[in-house]
Amino acid sequence: MSQSAPEPFHTSPSRPAPPPGVLHVWLWQVSDSPLSEDEILSLSAAEQQRANRFRVARHRALWVRSHTGTREILAGYLGISSAQVRFRKNAHGKPSLDAVPATTGALAFNLSHSEAWCGLVIACDAEVGLDIQVPHPIDPHLWRRVLTPSEHQEMNALPRSEQDAAFFRDWTRKEALGKAEGRGVYPHLRRTTTGLAPFTGLFPVDAENGDGAILRWHLQDLPSTPGLFGAVASSRPAKVELRHLTFRA
Ligand SMILES: CC(C)(COP(=O)(O)OP(=O)(O)OC[C@H]1O[C@@H](n2cnc3c(N)ncnc32)[C@H](O)[C@@H]1OP(=O)(O)O)[C@@H](O)C(=O)NCCC(=O)NCCS
């Protein structure tokens, strides 16, 4: 459906919003097959412009379908059509919902994609950030740009066979934190210690927000998903409910 063909809001969301203290994390995989015109036209003008900037058709297909899927999921919570979902962005590019129907409360969300995987976290009472990564071999030179001195020591003590997994745990936590704040990962590289061992629960992090205020965030690893690392950050303690999804695309 084209963005230029507005239709009235439905009144009944087909997906109940997560209750306070719960984060819905949706995970799905998208196809890189050639895009149809309808898929592209279902996005906003800004999204279509962004899609057109991809030079590699496979990357464009994965990106477009991460957005059509995100719209479809959010539309279900809002009781509107995918084309009616509107976004605004903060100064660092973090999207949030704009102009939601009065019948639904505010929802925070954050999208992440890695290869064909997409992840979307939804919350009703917290700011949130999500990062997912399909692992690949890591050049140890990258450790210096990401880890704090204590994390570097922790890394050096690990057997080589465990180091890449440790790196992805650390990287996704720092990305999730920066995405929850809305500033991105860079303020946390070499500065914020999350450790490398798997978390057994919530991990609190106090971080300066760039304006001198210290805010507390709650980090957690995503429940184990084969072939994927992931972490979520939230401004309140919350429990993750994982939802796997199969899209036709
Ligand atoms: C933007 C950033 C958070 C994206 O992280 P990433 O691991 O590459 O990608 P992810 O798939 O996890 O997340 C991308 C999604 O996060 C969201 N996003 C974009 N900017 C964001 C921000 N500042 N905070 C939170 N979320 C953001 C968008 O939905 C984006 O999806 P889209 O590109 O399809 O619109 C990360 O690159 C970063 O920290 N950037 C800082 C800004 C910067 O200097 N970027 C230069 C990159 S070299």
Automatic annotation (TrEMBL):
GO cellular component entries: cytosol
One Pfam entry name: ACPS
Listed under GO biological process in this entry are: lysine biosynthetic process via aminoadipic acid
What residues does the 4'-phosphopantetheinyl transferase N-terminal domain cover? 42-121
Protein keywords: Transferase
Matching entries from Gene3D superfamilies are given as: 4'-phosphopantetheinyl transferase domain (3.90.470.20)
Q: Which InterPro entries match?
A: 4-PPantetheinyl_Trfase_dom, 4-PPantetheinyl_Trfase_dom_sf, AASDHPPT_N, P-Pant_transferase_sf
**A GO molecular function for this record?**
magnesium ion binding
Query: Where would I find the 4'-phosphopantetheinyl transferase domain in this sequence?
Result: 128-191
The UniProt family comment states: Belongs to the P-Pant transferase superfamily. Gsp/Sfp/HetI/AcpT family.
> Can you say what this protein is called?
4'-phosphopantetheinyl transferase family protein
Q: What organism is this sequence from?
A: Acidobacterium capsulatum (strain ATCC 51196 / DSM 11244 / BCRC 80197 / JCM 7670 / NBRC 15755 / NCIMB 13165 / 161)
